[in-house]
Amino acid sequence: SRQGAFRSCTKGMVLSAEEFVSRRKNLQTYDDFTKLLDDSVNQENEYRGLFSQQRDSWEVPEVLNPSVGLVDVYENVAAYGCLPQFPEDTVPRCFELKDNRLAEGTSTVWPEFKDFATSWEVFSEGQLRHVDWSNIFAAGGAVAGCLAPVPAQYRDEQWGQDVKK
Known about the structure:
Radius of gyration: 19 Å
Mean pLDDT: 84
Low-confidence stretches: 1-10
Distance between the termini: 55 Å
Helix content: 25-40%
Oligomer: single chain
Number of helices: 5
Structural class: mainly alpha
Shape: flat
């Protein structure tokens, strides 16, 4: 049955957004980091499987919360501090930061929503200013880029002021 197909896709693992934030804030070791990453990917794959099987509706009975897995960045700013550079992390990087890497614990997101909003306004050149965002979900690199603070050396008192209001 279709319902049975849903049950076979769920393994019972639930990594809530709250648990993710808590574990992210308390990472101590590379093993903690890789375990959280693995659990996150596995959880996302479970949800992806459920949604892919329910093609004739946006409603998935096993997922009661349509915002499952989403984290409110501005209620959890402390969770977005730069992680330590673990010696076990030997993955090659295309653009190694070396001395330009943020110090451990430094926030990787703007501290306040208004700063993100200014960055979004600059990025979109004001083209999205009058959109009613009450039923729109935006995600991806543009959003992530606007969440990241502009480095101080590229930001002066005029930054963000040239977008016409």
